[in-house]
């Protein structure tokens, strides 16, 4: 029931770049971040309007002048926390008077252009009430639309992702097709099913679907600035299923499945743990969606939610290492030891790739970080899938030490 509730929450939270948000202005917090947008080289545009919530008719026709300020990334990255509201706005590239009606009507549209000729920039949008004209805890609803040159709603950090998704989706599809042909050929020859290959192909299939969904969602996003909430949710769910599928496969093999024994591990142990890990991932993703448009966030792996995802990854890695260490202690054959060592190293690269990519992304410009992490993560997924496809489908070290021939009743017995 909890998982169903969380899935529903994630579905509602998924949204595009067209921003509709509500700010609570207080005496102590009268300068508030609204949104950010990465502009590519050229001229982009924006439009915004705002209205006051919870008002009475007695204020009809009256207005308060607030400030709508726009900061460039170079200035935003400076420490502004010690400055007063007015001093902060002096650092802005552009500041507009926002005549906010007190009767709950929308203000007039503030429309403008932002240009950059040397490199892309991330622009930050702020609303402030430096003179504290509004009542304490006044709620202001803001709607803002931002576009790059050519009326493109994609922020600069999202540009190029469609090409990455499309190219890798084709590669994943070709790999999946090749693996399925190998499975069929193996079944016809040996009269048994390679469960490891079936498991691996499930992970590849879900990853392939996630990239297709991402491609179409970005296409919709590009035109309307909103995307489609359902597609965003489905994309995250497919990525999660793919990653957990491959993670569980690595952990179970490290425990000794197909190497020390052929029976599938005790489901009473693994299923509850997998469900708990899945639920925790969903909780973290839900929390991450709440802060999706935070000023500091350029990928799923930043902020508290990002830290939680990294911690979960390290927990799974610790479980894998524990199993691998125990498997080493049980293994006597030199060939098996050599394979387990190679398998442990390759799997460790997979588990550590995401934290390493997140750390390495800090050395790149803000608008590059998201693409670097997404592209790097997908590349490591592809490398892992390729590595496992090779060892599962060729008569190499794994095939010689594997006990998979005894997995299914009636399977042929091989001797080497």
From TrEMBL:
Which top-level group of life is the source organism from? Eukaryota
Q: Which residues cross the membrane?
A: 164-184, 196-216, 236-257, 269-291, 303-322, 343-366, 372-392
Biological process terms from the Gene Ontology for this record are:
G protein-coupled receptor signaling pathway; response to pheromone
Signal peptide boundaries: 1-16
Q: What are the residue boundaries of the GPR180/TMEM145 transmembrane domain, all occurrences included? A: 169-388
What InterPro entries does the database record attribute to this sequence? GPR180/TMEM145, GPR180/TMEM145_TM
Record's keyword annotation contains Electron transport: no
Q: Which UniProt keywords apply?
A: Membrane, Signal, Transmembrane, Transmembrane helix
Where does the record place a coiled coil?
none
Q: By its UniProt entry, which PANTHER family does this protein fall under? A: INTIMAL THICKNESS RECEPTOR-RELATED, TRANSMEMBRANE PROTEIN 145
The name on file for this protein is: GPR180/TMEM145 transmembrane domain-containing protein
Q: Which organism is it from?
A: Blepharisma stoltei
